[in-house]
Amino acid sequence: MTGRRDGRTRLGHRARRGRRGFATAAAVVLLSSALAACGGDSGTELIWYTNPDTGGQAKLAEKCSTDDYTITTQVLPQDASQQRIQLVRRLAAGDTEIDLMSLDPPFTAEFAEAGYLADIPDGLEQKLTDQSFEGAVDAATWEDQMVVAPFWSNTQVLWYRKSFVEKTDLDVSQPVTWEQVIRAADENGGKVAVQANKYEGYAVWINALFEGAGGRLVEDVEQGADATVTVDSPAGEDAARVVEQLASSKAAPADLSVSNEGTAVATFGSDAGAFMVNWTFVWTAYGDDPVSKDIGFTRYPRTVEGEESAPPYGGIGLGVNAATESRSEAMSAVECITSPENQAFYANDSGNMPASAAGYDDPKLRETYGQDLLDLFQQSVEAAAPRTVSPYWSDISLSLQSTWHPPSSVDGQTPGQSADFMSQALQAERLL
């Protein structure tokens, strides 16, 4: 993850100064709020808008509530793009009913650029920087400033059915390529489960394929809408080749064009299950089903032979609404929620791994996942490739979805068509 900070755009410096000014102007309001809390007013309610999970964020809200404030939760839509839309509409209107928000990494730059996120105090920023993985810090940073607090860091690995691999000549103790995985499944009656519906998860896969081939979707992101689109490149050809190979093979699930994280779990757990790329929650997803005893794991597949893979980076950063009337309390809540102890608490409940090495030291996590798998998760997070850090990520992602979907349509012409579409979308010459 080193070397990615030079891609930060400089477009937001005026918004940054505006937010600093807002912070100064709001000091009196915050001081009054803090004094009221110290005076025993326990009526302050912090509303935390969370991404859907198994209830772990609600448990943390209760755990981190104090005599000064109570944290309650509201759940955002399942789809990440719909989460963004709901938050943007309300934040753009200056809605003060949102205090905290669980924010998907690709939208961090957009929200920061728009001035929706409150500045994190220097002391808390330093604490979060010191405790968090470098990749988690990068994903939480815009314009060289941490704008959300790293909460949990997700990554994908290659999951495989041990009983299936035994029937093949694939050596999963060594790095494997997408071509090898697809061929092994195709020749032995298995399926390769991925996320290829027309949604953000498909953009995650495409981005990982690009980065694994040594390329990037967009360069010079500091130029904003004038960034250099590099989809039509050798890396783009390598990425398209993988998608085309899977889509045209017998290893493709019947629901490939509508597949997501959940359908991938179902495919992998079926009689035809062979391989799957998916997030860390998979290890506990099958409960007492016999499939759980047949799961193996290794690093995310390589796009091309000889090039290290670039596993997807996911997770959640915790942001504070710049318009909240309870900023001091909200920052205290952020500090509690993102402590390594509570990151581990949340990981044990949800299967979403901590954003800090200290969070991985939890004995219960080691008991559930085993040290080998936890080591793979951490190594994968450290090698992971984030989606392009840009306020224009939504345009980039929707352009990919529009030109690479369905997977069965992908061929050697796709990168060029995608580059043209994306360039026009960034320049507002094409509607998305």
Automatic annotation (TrEMBL):
SUPFAM superfamilies hit by this protein: Periplasmic binding protein-like II (SSF53850)
Keywords carried by this UniProt record: Signal, Transport
Signal peptide (UniProt feature, chain positions): 1-36
GO cellular component: ATP-binding cassette (ABC) transporter complex, substrate-binding subunit-containing
A matching Pfam family: SBP_bac_1
GO molecular function: maltose binding
Entry superkingdom: Bacteria
Gene3D superfamilies, per the entry: Periplasmic binding protein-like II
GO biological process: maltodextrin transmembrane transport; maltose transport
Keyword Signal: yes
Family: Belongs to the bacterial solute-binding protein 1 family.
Protein name: Extracellular solute-binding protein
Organism from which the protein derives: Nocardioides donggukensis
